[in-house]
Request: fold
Amino acid sequence: MKTRKQLVSLLLVFCIMLALAPAAAAADSTYTPAVMPNQVFTSSFTSIRMTLPQLQEKFPEGRYWNGGNVDATTGAPCPSHANTNTCNCFTSDGKRAWQCYGFALKLGYDAYGTSPRSWSTTTDKSYVDSLKPGDIVDNSGNPYHTVFVIGVTDTDVIVGECNYGGRCLIRWGRHIPKATIRNYGTLKIYIAPTTLPTGSSVTPEITLSQSSVSLPAGGSATVTVGTKSPGTIYLKAYTSNANVCGGSWGSWNSTGTQRPLTLSGNAPGAATISVYMYDANNDAQLTAQTISVQVSANSSPQLRVETLTTLNRAGTASLYPTVFKGYLRSAEKYDAYGDRSGGEHIGRIYVNDEFRVQSVYTNGGELWMSALCPWDGYPSGRTIYARLDGALDTAFAPYTAIAASSATVYTRPDGQTRYGSLGGGDAVTVVGQSGGYVQVIYPLIAGGYKIGWCDAGALSRPDIASVTAASATSVKLQCSLAANAANHLVILNGNMQEVARKAVGGSALTISKLTPGNTYYLYLESELSNGTGTVTSAVKKIIL
Reply:
């Protein structure tokens, strides 16, 4: 009997040991360990899934990582960052990540086939000198941002990213000094399993909207230059005869893969413009294209006119008069923070909260506001910090206008809830538009401002109706002036410097002593007699 009990005991021990032993590995020799709290495991893999050129082709420069499909891009920024409904969200590992952080994780996942949140990580700042393509650099402090490493030099780290310089905007090739990364207060580095291949699978290419151009002496033309390249590049243009034709770059357009090259006809004759592409890392010439230019004698004045909404650039805090009070521009709650940098999330602004914007400032490349907001436990309200796009559309280029007559102002662009009214002749700042309504910041009799929505037809502004060439050095204007105001014509040169300011008393005006080939900006400025402010017309950009 005793021997039988011993045998049973041995069998029980054997079964327990068998149950505790790890399961046999599958045929591919992989298994997933149980992840305990605070443990980090390095994921294994057999090969790179996507190279850098393939990632750049999938997520092109200047596109936007939004729209609901994490494997696609769109041509427009998110309408708002009040919530993440319009941002793409990385969920391949069962967790959520969006905007810059989600995009960096998505690049790592597409490149290696595993979530970067399963990679080894380090907070050791000395590792910055060991960064390689494929690693991910995350700073969860101020400024909060996450980037995907695509190149490293002696002094800089070259990155791919989104949500930098535009809401969910994709960018490739920005250089960040290593010293800047070492100074991040909350640095975390996700270490890629191996170096990401950055070799070229894309043939460098320059495309031209036209390879030959004819223009008159004193005139100009624009050729759109497109590029396709495996890496970071820069372009240069040279002319064979500067006396005949010169060239100058404009600014990058919204796609980021094309650039306008402005050609100016200096004198009759022929010239060749050569456009070269260089590797930004080693200055090696990659490819080139040429533009044949023929400049003809100009016997009659040539005039180019372009209408600009405003000279103001959206994203400048000083464009918005403060202090102003109002409500959220959409019926959605909005995140609020307890500090200027947005590091301490304390709650939300709600649809019925009337807040008072005390100041507008820049935080991490975005416009933010300091506002006094109704808050539980704060009888007089609490000072909170939030993105300004909760109050108004920061992508809209604001301009000034006049209330042609009294008009009702509403809390939102639905004409439902009355908020106040404009008086005839009030100068307002237009900061957005939705359907037939415009959002305005308007003055109060008691001082300060409100922000609300009114019928777009209730506003007017001075206008330069037409510009025509009068001679080789002069133009004629037909203007509509603001009533009960001191009206002036303002003339700026191509560098946006004011060169003349003329009082205007009638609808017709001639401007003389202009230099052919030069760029000028013209607009009307009307100072209202009732003292409510100054309004400006749309801008005419001219080249005579």
Observations:
- Residues 2-20 form the longest helix (19 residues).
- Residues 490 and 501 are 5 Å apart (CA to CA).
- The mean pLDDT is 82.
